[in-house]
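2024-03-11 09:14:02 DEBUG pipeline.ingest accepted 1 chain
2024-03-11 09:14:02 DEBUG pipeline.ingest length=698
2024-03-11 09:14:03 DEBUG pipeline.predict start
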Amino acid sequence: MTVKKLILPFVATAILAFVLPLCGGGMVEARTINVRGKVVRQGTHEPMEGVTIRNAETDRLVGTTNMEGQFTVSVDDAGSLLFSIMGSEDLTVPVEGQLNMTVALFPKAHELEEVTVVAKGLSNTLVIDPAELDVKGNYIYLKKHVKIPHKLFSSSVRMIIQPTIYNVTTRHLSYLKPVVFDGRRYAITQRRMYDWKEELDSLTPYRTVKTTGRRTDDVVLISDSLYVQNPKDDFMCVVMSSMENYNRIVYADTFMIARGTVNPLRFLNYSLKGYEMTDERYLPQPEVHLRDSEGDMNLVFEVGKSRLDMALGDNAREIDAMLSEFRAIENDPDMTLKSFTISGTASPEGNYERNRQLANARMQSAMDVIMQSVPENLRRNAKMSTDASVAGWAEVERLLREDGHGEEADAVAEIIARWPGAIDAQSARIRRLPFYKSMLVDNYLPRLRKVSYEIVTSRYRPLDDDEIAALYATDNSSLSKYHFWRHYRNVSDTAEKERVMRRALEVHPDFLAAATDLSALLINDGRADEEPLAPFFSDTKQWLKMPESSRYDMAVGAMNAMHYSRADSLMADLPDTPEFHKGKIYCSALNGRYIDVMQEISEDSPINEVLLLLAMKDNDTAWQRAQKLGDTAIEEYIKATAANRVDSYLDAIVHLENALRLDPSLRDVARVDGDITDLLEDVEETTDDADNGENGDE
């Protein structure tokens, strides 16, 4: 093995395209201006994406460059901007009132250790160095250059390199796009083959032909992505390669080039608010239901008389009130008469049979008067019924006790007990009581003589809140969408509100307002879930027709379920309003659009800033920021990631050990994390060695 040190003396400079600066005499107060510009790579003028831009005085992140290398930032006109990205020297540029600038970054001065391994056969073997599986949203990206040694390859062969992604968690193998590299003679022979048609060859889209000299090594690019349901699963990348001539396979090998995925945003921390349905088009409207109502009336008669005297007592007013009710029924198209019942009651003095006949006569008299005024169209479909009865002496006893006449009530009760069931015998004995005429005849017996009626109608009207609550408790399957909506909006307890919403969706599966409100409740309770709204979003062509609150809540649920691509599609067409803005920027970050949202998300928390820097591969800045984080388990884990990225091995080991000690469950994350898997092996080996030392012989 020969080791050589090469010193590459690079320096950094800037090409500044100036606009005319503002000039003036005396002191000029600094003001905030918008500076626009572009960052390029020195010597090539190639746009540099992902360059972080900070206010050099405050060290505050003010912007990043987009895919075209362009940026727009706000800064004091007398301030300075610090440009930084991994692999290039940091550069501080004074603003000096410029509104436009072009900045060129030079590669960072560094030492390279060139290691040359001399081994027999190495020059004629395909070797693929380790790669990274980057995660953006629901996609795993693989990009890797592979060198094909010229000593391995000849003009009469074809090399096929087939990358695959194996999901260790689900045990599912997926094939990425193959790389097909043909020698020139092989390509010519292929074209001359009988019946061979290029457009019918399934490998044609992936085929390139060697154009370099025969003694030149070639570099081919593996570049593809794979959609995955759960980005947090354990993945590995296995590359199968083979080389064939016209007759047989002459070389074959398999490499595992990556284990675990690089996905620092698995720890991205955000809290979003859910929104209930507000679109009037989808809110249930008040509904009327068929409900029964009833009333009663008391008529009085003279002692021993059965004819209804309208001049007696309140008879005329009672009859007029009842007839008004019939007229109201007749004039209301939402009401109908179900039944009409008259009950006549006589007092118990005298002969029981005669009293019963008197009660019947009184009832019939009242019925005759009433029926003369009830329209035929109401009576036609109504049930008309009558009832006659004689009040018992027990009723007199009850009234006496209610009025505080306990001694008199005891006297009546004693007679009833002595002659049970014999009303005539009871009447004869009670008439002999000393208080019969003075108290019972004048004050109590008249209270027992009456005719009452009951009108039962059906009327369509809205239920009030108490009726809805009672119906929910007894027969909630009969509740309409409006009644469910009205009921759960009156419930204050979160758990009970959720139960009512879920029951509403069981009874009415197409109840979009309830599904939206349930999703909002779960989001605000920290349990975002796409399940309630999923049935309404099964057809992607209908998504844009859905209310904005439904689309937003569904997107937040999808983000929580790690269905980032679905969330991105749902968020894309939502307006950038204050209600939706935060959800949109975090959805953008989770789907790989880091630059657009870097500044806002970084301001939310220091942890999020480091995570986005790691996602953007700005590892040096990420490590600088990470060292300022706290000492929770997650923060220690992030420090380990950042330290490992910049090859600060000892720091990475210490921080990872701290993280696993504070939260052992992070070990499961580390096993599938491409940034940490190598460290985890070393940490576990150290732990095993320590355990063996403690348990060994003294």
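2024-03-11 09:14:41 DEBUG pipeline.report The first helix runs from residue 184 to 192.
2024-03-11 09:14:41 DEBUG pipeline.predict end
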